[in-house]
């Protein structure tokens, strides 16, 4: 790519238009007349990038001095969303861009829309990482995000004619991608396999094969902070493009095999979210990016030094492990320090434990990674040795603390057959945090109880947060303007606690009406978006009720669809008076892991309920259901601001935090939810009277499990539930086919692990309360406004402040 010399900021719209013209000419080779929106998008992106370049280099130079400890956020996923609009906002170039693009004869929206969304994450965990790099930069903290530039992001979801999910590859790099800058000269070698031999009294790893890790750098501009950090995503390439020996024997396919294998490492994002995967390639991916990143960090702080003094390494940088996926970094740093830099074990251990911290994002046992020792031994034999030694040291330490043998056994990092990554992370780092108050408590009381008993001071909580830049300012410009009008300042964009200042305005009916008008305008806009994107017609004078998140049994999309079916049946058979029914449009958005059978069947059921309901004249104008395909960041940015009622209905004790819940509250939706994850804190803050609570709490769930849960009992006892399940079982949503959903129905009636049936009545009952309030728009909107005013706590800036204070012990660059 031809780089144009960096222009001086700030620029005028005229200058910015000239910069876009220059990029069109010198970089793309087209005139303004020839340019398409896609051309202008690339040209404008490069022009913005050039504006950020000086600050980026300056931030790096100040970071490299090492005077302020740097944060490295290690994450297998970064779900960034589209970049251009965000970069413009944070660089303060939005107005110039709008005018410049118009002067060139284009609509700003068309240019922004021309960007292809990078989908390098599955859901909340990946989006959280993206919010955190935004907040780190906005707070001026020196930081790197480290991850993988997958060639294929999260799959694109469509539905076939039967309503089944169909996954298609997301080849997001098919056109020029102007944001990532590939830096061939900062590559790293990552090795695998082979064996460990004894040489001069040292254990020496002789790997069998290596791949070249090449960084692709994304600039992360802080919001008006004067800092631009780096998101460094690694891509894998082969060293030996061809095995010439094999080639000479004209075994062409054999010859290119190593290259194909090497490049496979960064080829695809595993589409599982909070579900079990145990694939070799995934471990390769994890080691690949973590090893490259650790070496990169050493090079960054000790450039050109053969024998750097790494005893100060953990004063210069700390590594935050985003769930267990990067935990192999702990033995890797040990290996680097001992094998590559000749430190003794104890010195290496003290540097390593100081440098790492671990965030746990789940309570589901199946999502806590456990790797077969045989696999680690094959792929990373030296690391397995180190893990064994860590495990032995850990056992001895516990023994020294007086822990009994049975407990020590339960806590084993290395069991002989397997390596438990969450345990390794807990022992091998300084702090462990959960992602919401309830979740952190449950980690201490249940999942990691023995660890918290032995090391109580390691455990802490950081409740998740979301960035107000993307999820309010960009996603909801109308609400943003109203907030600024209400507060008399736009400082809330970087200090979200200021939203509290809106609280008195909840008593001002005129302001509440303006707030209501914003929501109505957002609904109207979404109707247009849905028509354009999905070709559907939506009645904007219905309540917009949304459930969007990954499809998972514990999240209980089943509960929502059973309630919808019950409503439908009630109207049809007259048990519900049609005139009393509040017109609702129910939106679902959710991807299911491709191998997750019941989740995919749930999608199919919802689509078929939608088909039946939407085509039934008896419920026309009363109930509509839409499963919007391919839920992604763009859809979230459009759907959340238009939503009036948000569903956060997971079984209590299963959703670690949730972050969608925060986005909805901040955009003025009311929540119907259980006491799970961050819902608890949202409800505490917005006020119980401004939150629709239903269902069992954690203790009730636990005691029901303990006394023996029988879902059939609930099926028998609530006629609404019985009727809904009977309709599914009887073929109403499968053109008479009674087998279509048999596995789902059987699961509900005999297993129902997440107690959907037990919570059904409570959920169905609270609908009356919801609808009653909705018929008083002023009261509803007053509550919604209070949700906004009282949710400033859920900014990712606050979350990052918590990490800085309680875990990283660092702050902004001087
Ligand atoms: C999610 C949690 O389910 C969610 O409650 C939380 O808000 C979010 O992380 C951010 O903290 C998780 N996503 C994953 C993805 C994988 C494995 C475990 C989790 S937990 C691949």
Automatic annotation (TrEMBL):
It holds the Pfam family Phosphorylase. The keyword rRNA-binding does not apply. The keyword Transcription does not apply. The modification N6-(pyridoxal phosphate)lysine is found at residue 663. It comes from Bifidobacterium stellenboschense. Belongs to the glycogen phosphorylase family. Its cofactor is pyridoxal 5'-phosphate. Its EC number is 2.4.1.1. Allosteric enzyme that catalyzes the rate-limiting step in glycogen catabolism, the phosphorolytic cleavage of glycogen to produce glucose-1-phosphate, and plays a central role in maintaining cellular and organismal glucose homeostasis. Phosphorylase is an important allosteric enzyme in carbohydrate metabolism. Enzymes from different sources differ in their regulatory mechanisms and in their natural substrates. However, all known phosphorylases share catalytic and structural properties. GO terms for cellular component: cytoplasm. GO terms for biological process: glycogen catabolic process. GO terms for molecular function: glycogen phosphorylase activity; pyridoxal phosphate binding. Keywords: Allosteric enzyme, Carbohydrate metabolism, Glycosyltransferase, Pyridoxal phosphate, Transferase. InterPro entries: Glycg_phsphrylas, Glyco_trans_35, Pyridoxal_P_attach_site. It comes from the Bacteria. This is Alpha-1,4 glucan phosphorylase.
């Amino acid at each position: 790519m031809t780089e144009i010399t960096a222009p001086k900021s700030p620029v005028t719209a005229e200058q910015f238009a000239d910069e876009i013209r220059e990029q069109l000419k010198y970089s793309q080779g087209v005139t303004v007349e020839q340019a398409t929106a896609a051309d202008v998008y690339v040209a404008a992106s490069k022009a913005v990038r050039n504006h950020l370049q000086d600050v980026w280099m300056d931030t790096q130079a100040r970071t490299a001095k090492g005077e302020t400890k740097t944060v490295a956020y290690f994450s297998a996923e970064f779900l960034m969303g589209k970049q251009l609009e965000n970069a413009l906002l944070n660089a303060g170039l939005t107005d110039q861009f709008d005018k410049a693009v118009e002067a060139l004869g284009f609509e700003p929206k068309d240019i922004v829309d021309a960007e292809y969304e990078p989908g390098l994450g599955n859901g909340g965990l990946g989006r959280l990482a993206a919010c955190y790099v935004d907040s780190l930069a906005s707070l001026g903290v020196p930081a790197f995000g480290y991850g993988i530039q997958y060639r294929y992001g999260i799959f694109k979801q469509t539905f076939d004619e039967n309503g089944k999910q169909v996954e298609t590859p997301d080849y997001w790099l098919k056109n020029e991608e102007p944001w990532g800058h590939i830096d061939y000269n900062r590559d790293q070698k990552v090795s695998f396999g082979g064996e460990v031999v004894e040489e001069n009294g040292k254990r020496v790893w002789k790997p069998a094969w290596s791949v070249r890790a090449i960084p692709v750098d994304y600039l992360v501009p802080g919001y008006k902070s004067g800092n631009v950090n780096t998101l460094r995503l690694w891509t894998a390439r082969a060293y030996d493009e061809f095995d010439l020996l094999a080639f000479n024997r004209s075994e062409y396919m054999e010859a290119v095999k190593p290259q194909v294998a090497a490049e496979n490492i960064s080829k695809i994002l595993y589409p599982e979210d909070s579900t079990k995967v145990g694939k070799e390639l995934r471990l390769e991916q994890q080691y690949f990016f973590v090893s490259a990143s650790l070496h990169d960090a050493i090079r960054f702080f000790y450039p050109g030094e053969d024998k750097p003094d790494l005893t100060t390494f953990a004063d210069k940088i700390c590594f935050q492990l985003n769930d267990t996926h990067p935990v192999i970094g702990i033995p890797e740093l040990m290996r680097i320090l001992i094998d590559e830099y000749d430190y003794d074990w104890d010195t290496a251990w003290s540097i390593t434990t100081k440098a790492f911290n671990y965030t746990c994002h789940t309570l589901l046992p199946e999502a806590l990674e456990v790797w077969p020792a045989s696999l680690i031994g094959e792929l990373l034999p030296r690391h397995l040795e180190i893990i064994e030694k860590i495990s032995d040291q850990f056992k001895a330490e516990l023994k020294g603390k007086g822990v009994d043998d049975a407990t020590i056994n339960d806590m084993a990092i290395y069991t002989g057959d397997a390596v438990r990554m969450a345990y390794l992370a807990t022992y091998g780092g300084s702090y462990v945090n959960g992602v919401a108050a309830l979740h952190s408590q449950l980690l201490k009381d249940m999942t990691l109880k023995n660890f918290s008993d032995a090391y109580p001071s390691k455990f802490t909580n950081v409740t998740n947060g979301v960035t107000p830049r993307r999820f309010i300012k960009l996603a909801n410009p109308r609400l943003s303007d109203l907030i600024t009008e209400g507060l008399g300042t736009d400082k809330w964009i970087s200090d979200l606690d200021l939203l509290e200042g809106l609280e008195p305005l909840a008593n001002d009916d005129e302001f509440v009406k303006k707030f209501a008008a914003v929501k109505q305008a957002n609904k109207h806009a979404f109707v247009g978006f849905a028509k354009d994107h999905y070709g559907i017609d939506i009645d904007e004078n219905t309540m917009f009720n949304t459930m969007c998140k990954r499809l998972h049994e514990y999240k209980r999309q089943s509960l929502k669809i059973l309630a919808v079916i019950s409503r439908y049946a009630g109207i049809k058979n007259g048990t519900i008076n049609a005139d009393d029914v509040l017109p609702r449009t129910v939106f679902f958005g959710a991807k299911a892991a491709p191998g997750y059978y019941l989740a995919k069947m749930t999608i199919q059921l919802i689509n078929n309920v939608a088909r039946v309901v939407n085509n039934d004249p008896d419920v026309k104008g009363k109930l509509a259901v839409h499963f919007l395909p391919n839920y992604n960041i763009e859809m979230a940015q459009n759907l959340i601001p238009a939503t009036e009622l948000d569903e956060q209905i997971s079984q209590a004790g299963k959703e670690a935090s949730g972050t969608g819940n925060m986005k909805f509250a901040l955009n003025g939706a009311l929540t119907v939810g259980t006491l799970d994850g961050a819902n608890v804190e949202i409800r505490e803050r917005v006020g119980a009277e401004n939150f629709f609570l239903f269902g069992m709490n954690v203790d009730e769930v636990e005691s029901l499990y303990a006394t023996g849960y029988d879902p059939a009992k609930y099926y028998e006892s609530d006629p609404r539930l019985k009727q809904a399940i009977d309709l599914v079982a009887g073929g109403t949503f499968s053109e008479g086919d009674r087998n279509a959903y048999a596995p789902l129905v059987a699961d509900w009636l005999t297993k129902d692990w997440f107690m959907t049936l037990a919570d059904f009545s409570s959920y169905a009952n609270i609908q009356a309360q919801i609808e009653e309030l909705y018929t008083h728009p002023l009261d509803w909107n007053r509550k919604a406004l209070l949700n906004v005013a009282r949710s400033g706590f859920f900014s990712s800036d606050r979350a990052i402040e918590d990490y800085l204070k309680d875990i990283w012990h660092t702050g902004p660059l001087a």
